[in-house]
């Protein structure tokens, strides 16, 4: 039971990390596309 809850919380952390990484990547991509339009 303990191992299962630890595994579940680790999976939750991985999901949060993946979501934040994806958000940062899409933000950077939008920022670069806007910058290229400005220049």
UniProtKB/TrEMBL annotation:
Highest rank taxon of the organism: Eukaryota
Protein name: Uncharacterized protein
Species of provenance: Nymphaea colorata
């Amino acid at each position: 039971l303990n191992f299962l809850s630890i595994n579940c919380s680790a999976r939750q952390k991985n999901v949060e990390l993946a979501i934040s990484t994806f958000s940062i990547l899409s933000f950077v991509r939008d920022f670069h596309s806007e910058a290229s339009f400005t220049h």
